[in-house]
Amino acid sequence: MNDLKEKYKEILERFDGLTNSINLPEMKLKLGKLEAGSTDPNLWDDQERARNLMQELGDLKKEIEEIEEFGKNLKNISDLMSDDSLAEDLSKELKKLEKEINEFELKTYLSDTYDAKNAILSIHAGQGGTEAMDWASMLLRMYLRFCERRDWSTNVLDSTEGEEAGLKSITLKVAGKYAYGYLKGEVGAHRLVRQSPFNADNLRQTSFALVEVLPELAETDLSDVEIKDEDLDWQFFRASSQGGQNVQKVSTAVRLIHKPTGIVVTAQTERFQEQNRKNALSLLRGKLWVRQKEMEKETKKDIKGEYKPASWGNQIRSYVLHPYKMVKDLRTGIEVSNPDSVLDGDLNEFIEAELKIK
Q1: CATH (residue range 2-107)
Q2: CATH number of 119-216+300-355
Q3: How far does Cα 182 stand from its chain's mean position?
Q4: What average pLDDT does this structure show over 335-342?
């Protein structure tokens, strides 16, 4: 029982430190302001603003409830600690609370300006034809499973399928508290080594795919980056479809070119042009933010969370399925021997290690 008491004391000290660092009273004050804003009769005049407010309200309320529930559970364990007959049950409960406090503490590393935002995640197949496009689709499944485990919603904004299999590229919005903060470390080139399923000789094949992650930014988030109407070249075309009754008869897809920088973004998965326009603008804001971070890079080299460009030279992780099984992160040194689990969305160990890099 003494070991359990020591473990309880350790968790209690960590929880006290956590509640002091996150300032729970301030979180509740912000919640009150959001709740007041949600009762504004004119709120839904701007549906995008309303959805963002309601999402922030729901996320913050859930976060406060989880912290308060943790405190109640901790107190309940304290009340039972003197009963030796409950040692086995208390041990299980303390292991559960230790896992939860680890998750709470991880969020303290997510303090950069846009870490709490939704994310816009893109995957691009590298050279290698069908093999690379299949690898891009495998990465997509990995991230979708990771998002499912965290109860984040996903919505495809733009997608180009491969001719034979897989994906040439895909862009999706990930909606959830701290989605950008957790996913931003996935930026870079991902390398796959396996026996190719696309040739009869089962030759060993190396494929690459590039992952980009941007925060979903509102117009008010980029007060120092002005997007002028005259700098935008809007182009409209028919979205790709599988034909049949669902073939596109109107130009709902959007291509947006930012003339001063030459940045081009597309959005085509929504049925209505106006929503694709909004998605394209959101993508452009993220790209402009990235460009600004690049320009500031020389003066911010020592700041944690500095933007890492999604370039092909910036390889971050290798996934080896043949001749042995291994996934290794080249930045943190984290290595696991179960790639099937990783490709099924078990990314926590890699993401946590990357967040903790000072």
Answers
A1: 1.20.58.410
A2: 3.30.70.1660
A3: 5
A4: 97
